[in-house]
Amino acid sequence: MSPERPGSRDGLFNDLAYGSDRDAYIDDLGQACARNAALGCDDGFVRQVIHTRANYLRVQELFGQAVPFRLPRLYHGDMLLGYDWWGTPVWLRSKTLCSGLLHASTTGGGKTGHLTFLAPQIPLCHAQTWLFEMHKTQLRHLRPVFRALSKDLVVLQAKHLKLNPLHPGRRDPTRHLTTCVDLLNRILDVGERGQAILWQSGYALYDKFGVWTRRSGEAPCLHDLYEYIRETTGLNAAAREAILDRLGALLSFGRCFAYRVGWDPVELEKFSVVFEMRGTTEHAARMVIEPFLYAVFQDAYNRGAVNAPLSLVIVVEDGLRLFADSNSSATKLTPLDEALAATRGSGKTVWPIVQGVNSVSRPLISNLNTKIMGLMGSHDDYQLLGADMRLSPEQLLWAKRNLQPGIFVAQINQGDWREPFVLRVPELKLSTRVDDDEAARSATALDSLPTVPAKEYEHWKPHHLIEVTTATPSTMPPLTEVELRYLRLVVAEPAKPSSYYAKKGSLNGAAAAAVRVKLVTLGFLREHSVATGRRGRTSIVLEPLDKAREVI
């Protein structure tokens, strides 16, 4: 005898809609009952199954025990992202991850655990990975796991790096120098005048080393740039002092930049590497990471790579300062954001792993299609990332109450499933440890890459000092930039009419006359009245004195 038929037919379809939206009929029996009900072939048993499951979910919701997420239908792919709420594997195609991945979680939220679960799968997808570890040294212990998969993982400590950010390699020298000067200006924060000095100095050094004509395979290093600016006179004093102070501090942490030819990032793409940045300053870390990113993305852009398979995964752990522009608002497009947006689909992808998203560049978040939320540290982080992941109020409340290490909420903006879902990640226990000796031995795999050290800077130390004199201060007022420019013109081309220098210095008559009178009064110039016109009119011709030549 069949069970009693619960409710009317309208109630049946209400139960069916409610349960289907919550994956109550995802198993074989549930699908069969839902299909029969939809076709009008329902009987007492079908109605009982549909009603019982829907009613069970209602009771769970009433007591706050329901999981307000649907189960992902991600059953195919070559990378195992983790497992859903009920333990079903969640697979992704590696090409889906080419558009970037953002993992946000507070300290102890399981970010590194998830990374250790994903990283060994990357070489199985015929791709390499660069793992930048800003503060910890945990990822080096993945080396035995890579070895078990017949893959190599190089561990590089900051002191073993061999870099030259000014070397353009096969890239266009003009564009490369422009990018490096912009990066140096943002790191050193020396303003527009400082940026002009950096550009002029870099241009002169490129000419000296034959970079423009590619006469030599070598290029000036950052130490050459420091020494050139230190020895060059006539530069804006304040900007020059700022550059020397801050560039000297950048170069003082080690000699990894003392190379005329450093590792080419494009050649380094052939290796999977852990970059341990612990012990470096924030500016030094940015000077290491950002040129690498610009180089590989610029190379992909020049080659016109479109819809390429996954080839390089760049992971930056605890890289909040790198992906937040401290000199502008969080909504402004930074150069790094622009580079990432222009090379989507190139097969090279960046995975930022951060502790919060409140100060992360908003354009960057929009360009990372896969987002994973872990245990967050503040309400603002939940709200901000939850809105980007399209979480409902019920889902956001559940995330605040239930997320813990190993349990995340994930959302993918492309592929077969776009709704957020709960993701479980098992802990990958690393039994074998890698010490500093083994890490140093692993770096020998990079000996095949050509490098040329700048030997004169092997024992270099910043030696920039501001000279202070105890002599009686002069009563002479200091010269302004306009007055110095006027004085240079007279020294360079003496015995010209004063109107000539005014026109050459882009000064109007009154301003030029005031500058001339001051320089004559201070003893830099001498005036001569000379008849230079056809009608016997006189002009004031200027003669530079020894005092002017000494100043210039």
Secondary structural class: alpha/beta
Instruction: Report the C-alpha radius of gyration, rounded.
Output: 33 Å
Largest sheet: 9 strands, mixed
Described by the principal axes of the CA atoms, the overall outline is elongated
Helix content: 25-40%
- Tally of strands: 15
- Strand-residue fraction? 5-15%
Mean pLDDT: 85
Spatial gap, N to C terminus: 111 Å
- The H-level CATH homologous superfamily of the largest domain, spelled out, is P-loop containing nucleotide triphosphate hydrolases
| Tally of individual domains | 4
CATH class of the largest domain: Alpha Beta
CATH level-3 fold name of the largest domain: Rossmann fold
Give the name of the CATH architecture of the largest domain: 3-Layer(aba) Sandwich
> For the largest beta sheet, what order do the strands appear in spatially?
5-7-4-8-9-3-10-11-12
Count of DSSP H/I helices: 20
Uncertain segments: 1-7, 326-331, 466-474
